[in-house]
Amino acid sequence: MASCRRMLLKVIILGNSGYVNRKFSNQYKATIGADFLTKEVQYEDRLFTLQIWDTAGQERFQSLGVAFYRGADCCVLVYDVNVMKSFDNLNNWREEFLIQASPSDPENFPFVVLGNKVDVDGGNSRVVSEKKVKAWCASKGNIPYFETSAKEGFNVDAAFECITKNALKNEPEEEM
Amino acid sequence: MQEAELHDLSDDADYAASQQEGSASMMRCYSSKLSTSSETEGAEIVYLKDNVAIHPTQYASERISGRLKLIKQGSTLFMTWIPYKRQSTNAKLSEKDRNLYTIRAVPFADVRSIRRHTPALGWQYIIVVLSSGRNRKLYTVFSWLVVYQVEQMTFDVACSTSTYDVQNCFSGLAFPPLYFYNGGVREFLTTIKQHVFLVRSVEDTNVFLLNDFQNPLQRTLSSLELPRAVSIPSMPSTPVLARESTSHENQERTDVGISDVSASIPQYNGRRRQKFHDPARDISIQVLEKFSFVTKFARETTSQLFRESHSNGFRPLERRKSNQSDDYSHKPSDDAEGVAVQSPVAPDPVEVYVCSLCQLIALCNNASAHLSMESVLGHGPTGTWFSTSIPGNLMPTSILVEQKVPYREHNRDGEAATNVGTFELISYKEFDKLSLVWGKPRQPPLGLEEWATFLDSEGRVVDSKALRKRIFYGGIEHKLRKEVWAILLGYHTYESTYAERKHQRSIKKIEYETIKSQWQSISPAQAKRFTKFRERKGLIEKDVVRTDKSLSFYDGDDNPNVNLLRDILLTYSFYNFDLGYCQGMSDLLSPILFVMEDESESFWCFVALMECLGPNFNRDQSGLHSQLFALSKLVELLDNPLHNYFKQNDCLNYFFCFRWMLIQFKRELEYEKTMRLWEVLWTHYLSEHIHLYVSVAILKRYRGKIIGEQMDFDTLLRFINELSGRIDLDATLRDAEALCICAGEKGADCIPPGTPPSLPVDNGLLYSQQDEVL
């Protein structure tokens, strides 16, 4: 019965992109430790609660991930299309996540990559090309990729629909 | 089932034996009466009743039977109740148990009231309530146990009455109910009436008052005109109390049966009108009567609570917000329902005690009656095992029953007691785990005038410990913080004079500017090839603009104070390049700059703070982990059921308290409260790690909700994060103080050496760890 399926999906957001969560969390403070907000999303006529986890961005807090990533259904890797280093770090974040969360099937654990801040300076300050990031995503098992602007809300809903879909993929028929 | 047991006497060998001994000793007594009546002191037994029993447990079969006597000596009437000497058929009752309850020669001058219970069905019994006075000291130990009992059985008293006479709860005392198995309550009262001044209470026809009209305390209480309190509910599982509710109905009835006693007291009618609106006294008597039900039952449930503190089916304390006690309203109202959760939440062993006391004290403060109590019992070679102290201003200071102190069989108080009758009490062996403290009420913050009294003429702090203690209990007025924080944080020493501090400020300002110039001199071209600097600066800039934006001091764009935050943090990252900048530091600096205002002063105070808290930001998180580890140990010590809950739910890493530790509750409290907490923490009074006890206090405060709602790690994290802004700091600090004292040495042992804010044990490289990015 579809209605018996779990409706709560835990999504971890990682990356060096600063304000990615601001749009959703309305928070103006750096996250200390970890926190999450919830977002209701509709997918295939069903309502889901996404539990969107924001963890302290600084690398030296990564060891906390062991506790905070536990039970995640999906990991969203965010980078800033205007900062090459944030793209370079995607690989580190992904690997760190897989180590800390240690999902049962790391090869197929659902990730989604978001290229953020595409609106900055009308796109003129962009340094990471779409081609480059898509190549990386393809090399990691065809990770879905979205370009978003959290500030403008551009493509955000589509991204979350995809996140939901992928998170569900992770637990195809889990019953409550 | 209990009812049947209560009334089943058929196979009670004890009863039968006592009948025999009763008649035998009756004869002895009569003969002794004959002999003593001729003696000079003129002691005379005017009343004697056998098979008067105390019920140490809720089971009548475990009663202790004895003989009740009224003895007239000169003009003084004494009451004694001596249990029968033979071994009981009931193995559960030791000889010692019997002796515990012995009442020896209590003069009626010390008796305040007697309540009779003469139900149509069931046994008659009386409760003798003692008045406050010279015997207080003797009975104090007992009254503590009574307090507990009241909490268990009739806790609604404390919660639902808007005012009630707690002073008397502490200062007065009631003996356990005396059950008249052979009847004779009426005769007993009639005999008393013949010898001492006794009137029937107008409020309750079953209460007889003695001696209290000349008592100034009574007049004071009467003059308070306290509003009528609600009646004391009874606990259904306790037949004795259930019966008592009948007497409360009597209380509401018109005073029909008053004639038999009051008629013989001519002046009574005149007084009656005057006394009619004097509920305070009556309430206090009622409460004391409740206290009288302390018996072995209480003792057993107590030790049960302490030993098998979970899954024993014992209902958790229903702590309801007593809305009149601002000082110690334990719960924000919005989660009151979480507290009264009926699910099998394991009771909190410490809380049971601390809360009951705090509740009573809150009421005590509220009642604002005038009475002081001070007693210290049992200073033995092993230390004070029980002490109470309530100075005249009614501010309770401390009450503690220390752990593991052996029961003193013979103490001075016991000897002192001989002239009024010994009332030995409950064995303290049973209370190994009992540690009882309540924190002092918070004081007003340290003000300018008082601050001056801590300084000598040249500005040195004369008694730093006294100062730290003062700040621990009250904090500092805001305008004084600038001066005192610098000393508390260790930027200035306590011994420094005004002149020395001034001198240091100027020296340090130059030093600060030197360090600051190190990064200021980095040109844009140089910065391009200095990734670490750029990234640090970028991260700092990103964080300072989102630090305390809600405060006008930091709000708006291009706020100069925000720029100061940035400059100080960047300078610090050069001053301590190994540690650098880490998220959370801007939170720690913000209040310091807000208080110190001056850039250099803020920097150096921040440096002093980071001396202690720097390890919080270690790359390996060792500073944080040692604190979280210590916290888990403290919870294990102070709330084992909660610890077990965390264990079962995979929460023992305590990461949900990460934010508390990292930035010292900065995100959990309002700005002013954060400053208050910090200055309290910085005193290092009682413990360097009082913040850990603060954490335990908060967790304990919400333990009912956490366990009741079966929170998993994620839910718990969210719950803890959402406590932000809802923590009652003063109450929490009192809890923390109490817990810290409770934990004592054992608590200190939970905290590994070098745990922040203690200075690291290893004085090698403090921040030798490599941080790849920053």
UniProtKB/TrEMBL annotation, chain A:
Keyword hit for Lipoprotein: yes
Record key words, sorted: GTP-binding, Lipoprotein, Membrane, Methylation, Nucleotide-binding, Prenylation, Protein transport, Transport
UniProt record, GO biological process: protein transport
InterPro entries assigned to the protein according to its UniProt record, in alphabetical order: P-loop_NTPase, Small_GTP-bd, Small_GTPase
Primary location recorded for the protein, binned into one broad class: membrane
Any single Gene Ontology cellular-component annotation: vacuolar membrane
Location of this chain's protein in the cell: Endomembrane system
Keyword Protein transport tagged: yes
Bilayer topology term: Lipid-anchor
Domain of life: Eukaryota
A GO MF term: GTPase activity
Alphabetical list of PANTHER family matching this protein: RAB FAMILY, RAS-RELATED PROTEIN RAB-7A
NCBIfam families in the cross-refs: small_GTP
Family statement: Belongs to the small GTPase superfamily. Rab family.
Protein name in UniProt: Small GTPase Rab7
Organism: Gossypium lobatum
UniProtKB/TrEMBL annotation, chain B:
Top-level taxon: Eukaryota
Region of interest: Disordered: 235-256, 308-341
Biased composition (Basic and acidic residues): 245-255, 316-334
Main localization, broad class: cytoplasm
Compartments where located: Cytoplasm
GO molecular function: GTPase activator activity
InterPro entries in alphabetical order: Rab-GAP-TBC_dom, Rab-GAP_TBC_sf, SGSM1/2_RBD
SUBUNIT field: Interacts with non-phosphorylated form of RAB8A; phosphorylation of RAB8A at 'Thr-72' disrupts this interaction. Interacts with ARMC12.
Job description of the protein: Acts as a GTPase activating protein for RAB7A. Does not act on RAB4, RAB5 or RAB6.
Matching PANTHER family: SMALL G PROTEIN SIGNALING MODULATOR 2-RELATED, TBC1 DOMAIN FAMILY MEMBER GTPASE-ACTIVATING PROTEIN
Protein name according to UniProt: TBC1 domain family member 15
Organism: Gossypium trilobum
